[in-house]
Amino acid sequence: MSILDILKERKMENEEPEEKKEGYVKLTELKKKSDKPVKKKTEKPKKKIIEKPKEIILRSANPRRKGYFIVFEGIDGAGDTTQTKRLYKYFEEKRKNVEIVHYPEYESPVGKLIHEFLHRKIDLSSEVQFLLYSTDMIKDRDKIEGWLKEGKIVIADRYFTSTISYQALDNMSMPNIKRFSGIFGIPKPDVVIYLKAKAETGIKRKVSGKIGLDRFESNEKLLEKISSNYNKMAQKNIFGKWIIVNGEKTKDEVFEEIIKKL
After folding, report:
1. What's the pTM value of the predicted model, to 2 decimals?
2. Residue 178 phi, psi dihedral angles, 5° rounding
């Protein structure tokens, strides 16, 4: 045996087999590992964030008033009667002390005259209309003031602000209107919720839900004029703070907006 063969033999004896070398992995082992199913990490379902219903806190700007006075306004067919009832029910369910009034009050002697005028049985000048509609509300002045002193929420479906828009704004100056309300001590609302709707929308709603429209409900040009009056009053916050709600939306959407803005 040559010296070269002896050296080769010793080298082979000193070398470790491939299997023993650090980091050596057989192809068969790799195959086995790859055959094992990979477990997917199961993601935990995200918790739904449930928004708590807004708690309405009503505070009057009038320091002498414990309660809160809300008025709904809008042209005929804007939805003020519907939303007045819904808000009243909402506060009742929240166990709040709440009262509701509607104008005109057709059961009262003054309201009966207004009803006859609206259904074209009698004609009245704008001045007489103003006095009749105002009287219908003034008769309840002490009752409303009493409720507010007791800390109750009072909701009115139309109010003196309707009379200003429908009967007074085009025939009386604003200083005279303010003087009149001051003389008779007509309570000011804390907020006027104005349901802004087009005259066309108002008439369509009235036609679909009522037989025989009164002289205001059937007159689109007049309703457009009254709508313009309301817009002016809302911009200037006449006879109270005004908030504008889109009255073109569905009943539920309108109510949601009211709750958000109160």
Report:
1. 0.78
2. -65, -40
Ranges of residues in the chain with a pLDDT under 50 are 6-7, 19-22, 24-25, 27, 30-31, 50
Which residue ranges form the domains of the chain, and what is each CATH number?
Answer: 68-261 (3.40.50.300)
Beta-strand relationship, 98-102 and 153-157: parallel
How far is 44 from 185, CA to CA, in rounded Å? Answer: 64
CA 110-115-119 angle, to 5 degrees, is: 150
Q: Which three-class secondary structure state does DSSP give residue 155?
A: strand
What's the angle, vertex CA 134, arms to CA 219 and CA 90, rounded to 5? 80
Which pLDDT value is given to residue 130? Answer: 95
Output the CA angle 256-259-262, nearest 5 degrees. Answer: 145
Burial class (CB in 10 A: 0-12, 13-18, 19+), 63: exposed
- Tokens matching residue 232: 């002016």
Task: Give Cα 250 distance to the centre of its chain.
Answer: 11
Between CA 49 and CA 23 the distance in angstroms is 50
pLDDT at 212: 72
Q: What whole-number distance in Å separates Cα of residue 84 and Cα of residue 100?
A: 8
Tell me the HSE value of 176 on the side-chain side, using a 13 A CA sphere. 9
Cα 150 to Cα 66: distance, rounded to the nearest angstrom: 7
Q: Which residue has the tokens 């609206």?
A: 118
Q: Each residue of 195-253: pLDDT tens digit? A: 999 999 999 998 876 667 888 888 889 999 999 999 999 999 999 999 999 999 999 99
Structure tokens of 233? 């009053």
